[in-house]
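Field: sequence (string)
Field: structure_tokens (string)

Example rows 1 and 2, in order.
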Amino acid sequence: MNWNDFYKSVKAGQYQSVYLFTGPEEHNKREALEALRRALLPAGLEQLNEAVLDGADAQTIIDSAETLPVMCERRIVVVRDWAPLTSGKSRNEEAEAERMLKWLQDPPETCCLVFYMVLELNGKKKLASALKKLDGYVEFEYLSGPTLSKWCAQQLKPLGKRIRQDAIDEMTLMAGSDLTRLSGELAKLAAYVGDAPEIGVADVRAVVAPSPEYSVFMILDHLLAGRLAEATQVVNSVLLTEPSPIRIIYLIGSQLRLDAHMKYAMESGGMLAEVQKALNINSGRAWHIKKQIAPVKAEVLQALYLACVDTEYAIKSGSVQDRAALNALLIKISQAKNATK
């Protein structure tokens, strides 16, 4: 289920014995766990009816989940980033996973066991696959489109403010999609506009501090338009706060990968709205990416992404210096405009 379905089930008093909370949106994930706590744990008895486990083995988790609640119907056991669900291989992983899989066949109704993932879930593992089939599997993706607009409106309503859709698009382009950060930015914007009832694009540009991802987006804007000098200025500015050339290369590669996906989809006849939905990005970012990739072929964008991967590997293997490699990559990308149709 998605996070919205989860809230509906909690409101209806319908709970699962086992949950798997995963996905990148931490703000909503934390709020969902708090909603479960408010619904199940009586005031004053929270500590008696909740256990939070880190690095526990399967038997410890099972014992905690089978402990009877005190003066309430269910207790909550939260297991954070359990190793058998993450990348890599943990100690006795097969035996631990098998023990948990056997227990999952008949979990008690007196407990809500929540596997809470901050790290990325390894969906290929047997236990992860089993948990994803349960009714308690909840995936917390970044909000976008009307859902994000509604969330922004809810955040601003107590402050007596509203925000234009183009301002939301600009804010998420500059600050990203993490709701924790967006909540803070909305509060700043509400204070900035003073008595004005509405927040616009100019307000966002005046108040919101650009994320490294946004700065990298602007670097690519310059490079794909052939403006190497302007891109270098932005890179130098980013290096003052993010002094890791390899991190910048990684972010450039991530954006180029997204650019290539969009270009291939649109060259195949995909409509912008369809591509935006498939890539799980908001309309503002989709429009900006469309403009960014206009002069470059899809195969060129793919080749540039692979060049980023190769450059990152070369730095990590010690065959080139990081800043020299970054500079060479910037030059290579700035020449991409010549490879047009």
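Row 2 begins here:
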Amino acid sequence: MKKKRLISDILVYSLLTAAACFTLFPLLMALMNSFKTNRELLTNVMSWPTGFSLDNYVRTFEKMHYGRSFWNTVLLAALSVSMMILFSALAGWKLCRTKTRLSRFLLKLFIFSMLIPFSSIMIPLYRVTLALNIKNSLVGLSFVYAGLGVSMAIFLYHGFVKSIPMEMEEAAAIDGCGSLQTFFRIVLPMLKPITATICITNVLWVWNDFLLPLIIISDNKKYTLLLSTNTLFGQYSSDWTAILSALILAALPVIVFYAIFQKQILKGIADGAVKG
């Protein structure tokens, strides 16, 4: 029995190792080639660089205005996710506690909206941003992200609120708390696990998204990291070593962010699955 279990574990870990190598291979190739010169890169992509100089990174840092683009991306992610969490938590709690046909209909409407592909609303969304005069605005773009992300967040909050005893809210009401006081003092602190999951996953989404900022932002002073990376691609030629180093610089903060908060992500998903 132990021998069969050992063989099974070896097979499972071998498959997981192969999957991890397959997933990490593009990132490792980009990292390795980012230290090469353009000549070395075009000669042999699979070879090791002759030297590990940081010249490409220094040149790329200045060329893509990394500091400004980094701040734009952080600001965009912070505004988008903050609004998403605030509105979704309130809506999910209220829809869960209000047992009416309207609340059930609204919840189903939010769930249905998750099935609509972004490509089908891309042009109408662009026209709406023009009509609202929020094109070329990071604050306006954050509202767009919040609007696109609230459906999934409301669905997750709605499931998680079911695990919170109603008696705690009734006790707060007896003590004189209003609806908002009950929510912010009693309910919201208990939503911490699922809030952490929603926060982290949506920060990763906003940080790594390229298409939506490309549609709405045209001022290079408001470019995100990925939009700044895109400026390194020329019409007739591209500086591939600069592009690879720019991609590493853009991905590094979010990799560190995920590595720090991965326990919260897994805990929130597990708690949401059990309690939701």
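free_text_note (row 2): The mean pLDDT is 84.
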